[in-house]
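Posted in: Structural Biology > Protein-Ligand Complexes

Title: Requesting predicted complex, FE2/S2 (inorganic) cluster in pocket

I'd be grateful if someone could produce the 3D structure tokens for the following input. Sequence and ligand are given below.
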Amino acid sequence: MSLYPDSIARLAFAPRFAGPIEDANAVGTDASFACGAFVRFELAIDPDSKKISAIGFRSNGCGYMIAAAETCAAAVANAKLTELHECNFSGFEELAADRMRCAEVARHALKEAFARFRQTQLEEFPGEKALICTCFGISEELIERCGAQSVEEVGERTNAGTGCGSCRMLIAEIIDSAMSEL
Ligand code: FES
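-- Reply #1 --
Done. Output follows.
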């Protein structure tokens, strides 16, 4: 008999996304200070379609951690960056309600992968003004010019901020600064 509830055992003992992938261009790792276990995600993100074409993970964690990593991977596999909703996956809390610290390691590792993807895009951006949203290649200049007055409006007009969400604070600052100059 399994130590884990059925819903966890089902995911932990037959994970579809376990293992490395080829051509990964976004990699993120996080570990638990409590037990030392880690989760590492590898993603291949198509630079043109902005679609996550492949995802895999590795972990030396318990069944809860593996189930959480599997849930995160399933939530973003084949998704476009516009569909990430800041990695706020529905059903995630319910799955690991009694082991949230294991689940958080998986979620942080995935966010780290997107943050690293963002960093690479920033380093390769050839424009003169700052690149703000790396998920969609939206520059500071474009955000200023789109005439939006809220982060949501910027998202509707340019897609910026609607992917991993890590640029939303920067977008808010640009809008605040543009409004204060009016
Ligand atoms: S950098 Fe990911 S949504 Fe903007």
